[in-house]
What does this fold into?
Amino acid sequence: MNKKEIQKDYNKKIKLFNDYSKYYYDNSSPIVSDKEFDELKHNILLLEKKYNFLNSKKSPSQIVGYKPSKNFNKLRHRIPMLSLSNAFDEKDLLNFEKKILNFISKEEDYKITYSAEPKIDGISASLIYQDGKFIKGLSRGDGNEGEDITNNLATIKDIPKKIISKNFPKEIDIRGEVFIQNSDFKSLNKKFANPRNAASGSLRQKDPEETRKIPLKFIAYTHGYEKGLIVKNQFDYLKQLNEWGFKTNSLNSLITGVKNLLINYDKIEKKRTELNFDIDGIVYKVNDFNLQKRLGYIANAPRWAIAHKFSSNKAVSEILNIDIQIGRTGALTPVAKIKPVNIGGVVVSNATLHNEDEINRKDVRIGDIANIERAGDVIPHILSVDKSKRNNKSSKFIFPKKCPSCGSETVKEFNTITKKNDAVRRCTSEGYMCEKIAIEKLKHFVSKEAFNIEGFGKKIVENFWKLKLLKFPQDIFKLDFKKIENLEGWGQQSMQNLKYSINQKKNISLDKLIYSLGIRHIGLENAKILSKYFKSFSKFKSLSKDKNFNDLLNIDGIGETQLNSIKFFFNNKDNMNILNKLEKILVIKDAKIEDASGLLKDKTFMITGKLNGISRAEAKSLIEENSGTSVSSITKKLNYLIIGEKPTRKKVDMAKELNISILDQKQFLKMLNKTS
It folds into this structure.
């Protein structure tokens, strides 16, 4: 990238960072995970380090927190409330200590003692005391100015209003964290994503009486301005706070050397599941106050302190139970019910165990302490269990041999490709006979990629099923709206909106309809392939009469797996009844006849990896516009594999093995007489 492009990218990231900050700090309702927020901040700092011409007053290197809310009066901190630099591994900690030693001209063997304090994931606050009286309370704000939230802070029982002690300073700003215990958070309504946001939102109530209703806690950990403080180091100061009536963290410790910091880090991380509050790392502070003063500050962070963050996408929790969820294809998926834990800014209470084999392989038991990982927005999964913490009460989970929903036998199907039984156990019930399968099929039918009926969400499907308003897909188009209008939470307007949304979707393309049926192994791409082949709904439906299923193998993108699923679908009486009923209700548009003269006629393509300048969806659209076919799996019938950045190695190797042509993005676009 040239200088102009770098600047543009930087400005974009700065804007994004400030948008996220507004939601995170000002609105108490983050729109991205903590992990994404931290990564963006880290990327900005790396760019500034690499390119010295980059700078912004709105950069995280220049600002702390977010500007105070307009709902409260602003007050200036007598000593700024700064943020901390982050460490993520041993290398970062060694670098932190090395910088300290270099600054004070000491050799590497010089021992520095640190106060190691678990970092509670809450809201920072500064309490101003004069002559032992609590007179003002401020939020951190932007580090220089905070919000005057005195009245709200005064409702917190952990905050002493009057301190009588001979050694209490004449003036001092006591700083700490306002938070909500996990057990208390459970009892709150669900308008907050996690305890931190709940604490933030509670402190920003205009009416202190509303704040009083929330069980807020306060832990003290440092001071700002002081006049008359007699202690000489951080650890003694923490002890002094206790004597004055403030609560401090019982896990605080005094540690010398980076190796010992790491040992303590591992110990505390394992204890996270036992705590009744969220911690997202450990703060290390040079213990000696004189040395702190000597080290001073860099930009908006002290040289003498650092936050050693826990992995934002991993956590430890207890397995309370294991439930079985049943999907629309009959797959039985075990889900661990875990003690709620904060992972990347989201409170998680479920973690998938994938299948029966996975439970056995990892020897997962109810009552175990588990290591949990969450990646993006997907459901978290169990990485492993800590067998050293297993007790006699831990019980082995027996996977059901019969469907928990309908009582049908469950089986592991034989896979003709791998020549092994599938790992997934499935309910053998057909069609809509199993309640759980039926409900999931209906959810799929109204989903975004299928009929996309606005306002017809998963909860509504479940509710209508319970009320016996809905059993089969065709029932959606003949709902009793008079009954719906009188249901709790409904009314004339909401009923009319739903009615309108349903009527709007009575016109549908053949590919969308095929996809909406939820035939196993028939996703959006295969649905498009089948619609092009059959061209009309009547021809698609007639497949049941022809019984000439094997002809489908001549279609590029359709293999034995898809064929068997289609056979299974058409051999079921419920499914045929559904098709007949839908045909009478809907206007099903025939498949568009593509221009047979397209540049990619009779060619099949698959894409792996990230493309530059165009999305994969756009690339697939280009293929189809030019009479080609886009597929999602590699078979002998595939003509080309298009590879972008970071392609799936397994797919590339498989293509090479089958002598399939491999194209990069430039080669693909050249086929279309286009350039990237």
DSSP finds 24 helices and 30 strands in the chain. The chain has a mean pLDDT of 87. The longest helix spans residues 3-26. The two ends are 16 Å apart (CA to CA).
